[in-house]
Automatic annotation (TrEMBL):
Membrane spanning residue stretches: none
Gene3D superfamilies registered for this protein in UniProt: Periplasmic binding protein-like II
Keywords, sorted A to Z: Signal
UniProt cross-references to InterPro entries, sorted A to Z: Bact_solute-bd_prot1 (IPR050490), SBP (IPR006059)
Protein's name in the database: Extracellular solute-binding protein
Upper taxonomic lineage: Bacteria, Bacillati, Bacillota, Bacilli, Bacillales
Signal peptide bounds: 1-22
């Protein structure tokens, strides 16, 4: 198994003198043994800057950057948190560009599923030897595990939420769907298929679909990945680390997803639906159920409802009042529910040179500051996301939040049946799987959605590519 891990300092004391004398480079230099003793107490007070690349995690997140930096400096007067804002569209590209140049930010916000990729590139920083016990004990165990790979810890999670579906309450009830039962018991593919057929309505020459999912571009893999977890394939590798998408369940899943379009329950032009369009279709009454959906969509729908009531011109054009209902994805082929969790967080990076022990400790302080306490409480309340640290839960006690209790129950049900973390998948296998996903699965699935590729043809293409990547003995055969 190929791993590139940061090399720990052999003589930490020798670095402290230079730090105390005003170095803020964050990289290791040598100093005389005599100077090191005097520098030890001053090192923790040396000036230092921690850089962070952060997208708009929640609707109001980036509006708080100035206050966040100020609060961090108040907590640590010798430290400066320098935040570089980025959009969701370009944050990954910016990070990859900086990583490839060997000069990533100290902290970057991103999906925990990208950790193996950055470990392979050698610049992700394991903070296991630096993180304090009280930081670890502040966390719920499940989300923290997502930031691990092997025995290493590569940052702190910001939230653990579930990729769900979202329904229009009025339309669900018109179709005779017991949405409260679905919220707390789930539903099978057959039940879901029949339900969205009932949700198709044509009036005045316009069609309201039963189900719409954003699939344009790379978003296609979200749809497939979320449903695959509920089809007996929670990860791209089974427990024996054999590639799972060569299973017959994968072919069955592809057939099932294509059938929803052929039924007329989803638009034939589904391949052109991006995230913005699917949300617009939901708010303008063009679909009964939408995906993927996070709990924050309830907040977004309420905000648009308020604009409609106030006759605010900034409300979505032609939109209607919507009561947003959180719904679980269906299960396939008798599989147990394994709901797709999204654990994004603050990943910790190093440059080409090893950081000083002091700079590494300061990066940990900054990452933990962003991921816990009032910062996390404010952000997660904005997202309608569950709090995953005790400090955030305490800070949130005084914050008001207007959230449907039924939706809270639905999220709780899905979290109890969430896909568990896998830190045992070797980074080289995970990197190969990401490459296969990018080069084969995404384009083939886009073709499947557009009606240009059959389920059988896509399955064979994935199977051929998987055997080439992992070997005939490295894939599931059933």
């Amino acid at each position: 198994m190929k791993r590139k891990m940061p090399v720990l300092a052999s003589v930490v004391a020798l670095t402290m003198a230079l730090t105390a004398c005003g170095s803020s480079s964050g990289t290791k230099e040598s100093a005389s043994p005599a100077a090191s003793a005097a520098a030890t107490s001053a090192a923790s007070q040396a000036k230092d800057t921690i850089t962070a690349l952060l997208p708009p995690v929640s609707p109001n997140y980036q509006k708080n950057f100035e206050q966040m930096a100020k609060d961090f400096n108040t907590l640590y007067p010798n430290l400066t948190l320098k935040i570089e804002p980025a959009s969701w569209e370009d944050v990954k590209q910016k990070l990859d560009t900086q990583v490839n140049a060997g000069s990533p930010p100290d902290i970057a916000f991103g999906g925990s599923d990208s950790i193996p990729k950055y470990i392979e590139q050698g610049l992700l920083m394991d903070i296991t030897d630096t993180v304090k016990p009280e930081m670890i004990s502040d966390y719920d165990k499940a989300p923290l595990d997502y930031m691990k790979n092997g025995k290493g810890l590569y940052g702190f999670p910001a939230y653990m939420e579930v990729h769900a579906l979202g329904g229009n309450k009025a339309y669900l009830e018109q179709a005779g769907i017991d949405w409260k039962k679905v919220q707390t018991n789930g539903w099978t593919y057959d039940e879901f298929r029949q339900a969205i057929k009932k949700g198709v309505v044509t009036e005045n020459g316009k069609t309201r679909y039963g189900f719409v999912f954003a699939v344009k571009g790379v978003a296609a893999v979200d749809y497939l990945g979320i449903m695959a977890k509920n089809a007996g394939m929670p990860y791209a590798f089974n427990k024996d680390n054999k590639y799972a998408y060569t299973s017959k369940n994968y072919l069955g899943l592809l057939k099932d997803l294509r059938a929803l379009i052929d039924d007329g329950s989803m638009p034939k032009e589904l391949s052109s639906v991006d995230a913005g369009k699917r949300w617009n279709m939901f708010l303008t009454g063009q679909t009964m159920i939408t995906g993927k959906g996070l709990a924050v969509f309830e907040n977004s729908a309420k905000a648009n409802n308020a604009k409609l009531a106030a006759k605010d011109a900034s409300a979505v054009k032609d939109s209607i009042p919507v009561d947003y209902v959180v719904l679980p994805a269906p299960t396939f082929q008798g599989a147990k529910p394994s709901y797709a969790t999204v654990v994004d967080g603050y990943m910790t990076f190093r440059g080409k040179k090893d950081p000083t022990a002091e700079h590494k400790a300061n990066v940990v302080k900054a990452a933990y500051f962003l991921a816990s306490g009032s910062v996390a409480a404010t952000t997660n309340n904005d997202l309608f996301a569950a709090h995953i640290t005790q400090s955030a839960k305490k800070a949130a006690e005084s914050m008001k939040i207007d959230r449907s209790p039924e939706n809270v129950a639905a999220v709780d049900y899905m979290l109890k049946n969430a896909t568990p973390a896998r830190s045992d998948i070797p980074t080289d296998l995970a990197a190969k799987a990401i490459k296969l996903e990018t080069e084969v699965i995404v384009p083939k699935f886009q073709g499947l959605i557009a009606g240009e590729v059959t389920p059988e043809a896509m399955y064979e293409a994935v199977k051929t590519a998987a055997i080439a990547a992992f070997g005939a003995d490295g894939v599931v055969k059933d």
